[in-house]
Amino acid sequence: MHNGVMQTSGTELVVVLEQLVTFIRQVSTAGDLSATASAALHRLGRDGALGVTELAQAQRASQPGMTQLVTRMEREGLVRRTAKTDDRRTVLVEATEAGLELLNRRRAERAEALQQTLDRLDPEDQAAIAAALPALARLVESRSSD
Amino acid sequence: MHNGVMQTSGTELVVVLEQLVTFIRQVSTAGDLSATASAALHRLGRDGALGVTELAQAQRASQPGMTQLVTRMEREGLVRRTAKTDDRRTVLVEATEAGLELLNRRRAERAEALQQTLDRLDPEDQAAIAAALPALARLVESRSSD
DNA sequence: CCATTATGCATAACATCCTTATGAATGCAC
DNA sequence: GTGCATTCATAAGGATGTTATGCATAATGG
User: Fold this and answer.
1) Any chain B CB within 8 A of the CB of A61?
2) Do A135 and B126 meet the contact criterion of CB atoms below 8 Å apart?
3) Cα distances (angstroms) measured from residue B99 to each of A110, B44, B85, B96
4) Which intervals hold domain HTH marR-type (chains A, B) (predicted)?
């Protein structure tokens, strides 16, 4: 490549990401989750039990909306409400086994679809993407800690 | 780890993309578009005028749903309905200037937010991402032509 | 060339999922 | 304890999606 300045362009990255977003959105069909439901379940899978208000803020959703979403997901067996021992106002929400399994299934759907597309690329392109993965991981990492 | 080949992993890419997706979703606030509206407008901006049914299929939405969405976006001045000369059943939908401008504004929002995060990365990470951009562009390119 | 069938869009009725406003229970500060 | 803050739930309504259906136009086949 160049040895000069390799300017990383947010604009170019956004254009690519926009298309990957629609791609991913169309591929993940298992479980019939709304966007908010998917994101909330994802969060619970990563961070463990959270309060309803906490979860709502994390998803930029209203607290009543999150209460209702939790009720729906609870009815479908994806999450469980538990009491917080030291504060009886708080309701902790955690993913059930079925919820975690659904997450994995959806991720597998996406991964497989992506993999098929990756496999059709030139080896050099595949290598370039593979080489950028750690950097992209750090990008989202630095993002989530604000 | 256990082999020498630089294997591009769909699974790892999906994990990173999932987080970038939520990031982007939270950043794009201009115009207050639904996910479907954003995707449809994006499509119109890229591919020009399309029929309502065509547009619905592209977004995996129902045709009546797309009719209603087009009606709403038309009311907001984002798209325009025009007649197709050689088939009077078909209604062609195209983005207006205001629609295209809104697309650009949303993209700029996303790009700026991403850029700020990119700027905080190590130069090597920035370079790795920049180097992977053409490959990622080809990835989505090969995707959209199916 | 006319009857039949297919296609494309719109409308109606309804479901889902979000919002704001508000209430009830619990915790905290004084 | 009284008053205020916090947390979740409920109620009511709005936005946005769905399926079922109708109407206009086009294509097809005797």
Assistant:
1) no
2) yes
3) 30, 9, 24, 5
4) 10-138
Q: Count Cβ atoms below 10 Å from residue A108 Cβ, excluding itself.
A: 15
Strands A91-95 and A50-51 turn out to be antiparallel
The ipTM estimated for the assembled molecules is 0.80
| Cβ atoms of A51 and A91 closer than 8 Å | yes
Distance A88 CA to D11 C1' (A): 24
Q: Express each pLDDT in B82-138 by its tens digit.
A: 999 999 999 999 999 999 999 999 988 888 888 888 899 999 999 999 999 999 989
**Separation between Cα atoms, residue B34 and residue B76, nearest integer Å:** 13
> Could you give the dihedral angle defined by the CA atoms of residues A141, A58, B115 and A140, in that order, rounded to the nearest 10 degrees?
20
Stretch B62-75: mean pLDDT = 97
- Asked whether the CA dihedral B110, A47, B17, B48 is positive or negative, the reply is negative
- Which residues does chain B have within 8 Å of residue A9's beta carbon, measured at their own beta carbons? 111, 115, 130, 133
- Using CA atoms, how far apart are residues A131 and B6, in angstroms rounded to an integer? 8
**CATH numbers and ranges of domains, chain B:** 27-144 (1.10.10.10)
Please name which of A131, A79, A98 lies closest in space to residue B13, comparing C-alpha atoms.
A131
